Amino acid sequence: MGSGCGRLKTSTASSKTSGRTNVGQPYVMRHQLKKVVTPAVRREAVVYLCEAHGVSPRRACDVLHIGRSLVRYLSRGGDDNDLRDTIKRVSTERRRFGCRRIHVMIVREGFEVNHRQ
Questions:
Q1: Splitting the chain (117 residues) into consecutive groups of 10 residues, what average pLDDT does each group show?
Q2: Range of the domain at 107
Q3: What angle do CA 90, 93, 96 make, to 5 degrees?
């Protein structure tokens, strides 16, 4: 048995960078800014382009690849803060009650909600 029993020799050629100047993960330095993902951030980006560069909202949406309907969208949902607070209060008071019983108690308190809330 030789001195190199069970060991693999690593060549110096495999440890070189193969002539590449940037070794490692290439996306680390490229993406220093966060992605524009949520609708609110996309709307802000369109407003920024319109104000800073003096372009129309249509052109700003086209440059950012954002639909114009996203910029114009207005939510029609109501404010459910009172309902949410009541659901949390009832569920903490009555820990053993399930969603159906909590729904009954909320309806008794005067809220008009369907069974899914």
A1: 59 57 60 78 93 94 93 85 92 92 92 79
A2: 76-117
A3: 90
